[in-house]
Amino acid sequence: MHQRGQQLEMPVYEQACSALHDDYERVRFLAVELVWIMSHIYPENMVKAPYSDEKLRLVDDAFAYICNMFNDSSYKVRAEAARLLGSMHLVSDSFLFQTLDKKLMSDLRRKKSLNEQAKEGFVEEFSSGAKWADDAP
Q1: Domain for residue 134, yes or no?
Q2: In a domain, 128, yes or no
Q3: Is 50 exceeded by the pLDDT of residue 79?
């Protein structure tokens, strides 16, 4: 519709967001594109946040939805989300910083070795099998 020059109305955004959870890969792929298009047409429109009564700018809401598509089961949808995310320029700093904090910074934390975890008493591993039926009555 948009490619043919037709005006997209705001209810289309809500439908596109719902379609992000569709069973079909192609529907999710196109829904990501549509969410991105709507974020460029109506970036400053206010929309209801998904899990609260708070209002968000559409571009910030779309950014959050597209970020969530990085967890999609389809590599095509994930790649499309990454491609589109790179061209979202009006996203507020608070959303960008929150994404860095949650996504990237958790991966940058130093992972402890099993020996370090064992010293702290956090290791959960399989039994060695040395004590057969140790828990038998």
Answers
A1: no
A2: no
A3: yes
Is residue 122 assigned to a domain? no
Split into its structural domains, the chain has a count of 1
Long-range contact set of residues 30-38: C-beta below 8 Å, sequence gap at least 24: 32/66, 32/69, 32/77, 32/80, 32/81, 32/84, 33/80, 33/84, 34/2, 34/8, 35/62, 35/65, 35/66, 36/62, 36/66, 36/84, 36/87, 36/88, 37/2, 37/8, 38/8, 38/12, 38/13, 38/62
Instruction: Please indicate, yes or no, if residue 60 is contained in any of the structural domains.
Output: yes
Backbone angles phi, psi at 70, to 5 degrees: -65, -15
Which tens digits make up the pLDDT trace of 109-130? 445 555 655 666 654 544 455 5
Q: Which domain holds residue 18?
A: 2-117
**Per-residue pLDDT for 44 more than 60?**
yes
- The residues that bridge with 57 in the sheet, in sequence order, are 46
Please report how many Cα atoms fall inside a 13 Å half-sphere around the Cα of residue 35, on the Cβ side.
34
Question: Which single residue is written with the structure tokens 């060695």?
Answer: 128
Question: Which of helix, strand or coil describes residue 11?
Answer: helix
Average pLDDT of span 20-41: 95
pTM summary value: 0.68
